[in-house]
Design brief:
single chain, 9 helices
Length: 229
């Protein structure tokens, strides 16, 4: 069985643009039909995908594999479309990673329980809906994946700050200029884009790629070729 550290790195993404470089505006003009818009959207998605740093992906994969092999819990969180990615992450990083491997990941989305979210938001403050849950559930050595296109959501930043201050590993998935989340997180997987749809699509792709990469790293070549990912 291969380990994560034995696997070769193949065709890493291009280096990230220099800090402070504004991502291109998309769309910047009207399109005459949906097909042309889709073609341009696909081109912008491909460009933004190339901006994701290889080193950040490798560090995030290491953090997650260490959590999954040590029995630590990985928490995820996000708002709106990013909440859907955080919830989907629980599925792929628990069931998906476990399938045909020796791993039994512990994964919890902090965005999934609407009763709990609204109780905290109503009785305390929406800015604490994620940090408050971590205070009850998290332990040193756990990990937090916070998904935020802008990186500026107060509840995301507070969760990352609390996590780093209490011994958790932290990963942020960000876009636009990354906001405070990009600076607070131990590892920031940043999409250099300025379109919410493109950023969310690539955050979802990163989530899937990390889960599938970790899964295949614990499988034999024969098992990989005979299983569907």
């Amino acid at each position: 069985m291969s380990t994560l550290h034995d696997l070769p790195i193949l065709t890493p993404p291009a280096p990230a643009p220099p800090a402070g470089t504004d991502p291109p505006k998309f769309p910047d003009a009207p399109y005459v039909n949906a097909a042309r818009y889709f073609s341009a959207y696909a081109e912008e998605t491909a460009r933004a995908a190339r901006s994701v740093e290889a080193a950040a992906l490798a560090r995030a994969a290491t953090i997650l594999l260490e959590a999954y092999t040590s029995g630590a819990t990985v928490f995820s969180c996000g708002n709106g479309g990013s909440a859907a990615i955080a919830n989907h992450l629980q599925c792929d990083h628990m069931k998906g990673v476990r399938t045909t491997t020796d791993l039994s990941p512990r994964v919890t989305s902090l965005s999934v329980n609407v009763e709990l979210l609204t109780a905290i938001a109503n009785d305390l403050t929406y800015a604490d809906v994620f940090a408050y849950q971590l205070q009850s559930q998290a332990r040193p050595g756990d990990a937090l994946i916070a998904v935020s296109s802008s990186g500026r959501s107060a509840n995301i930043v507070r969760a990352l700050e609390w996590a780093r201050g209490h011994g958790l590993r932290t990963i942020a998935l960000t876009g636009f200029d990354g906001g405070e989340a990009r600076r607070v997180a131990e590892v920031a997987i940043h999409v250099h884009g300025a379109n919410y749809g493109v950023i969310e699509d690539l955050h979802q792709a990163v989530m899937h790629a990390l889960a599938q990469y970790i899964r295949q790293s614990r499988m034999t070549s024969a098992a990989i070729s005979s299983n569907v990912f």
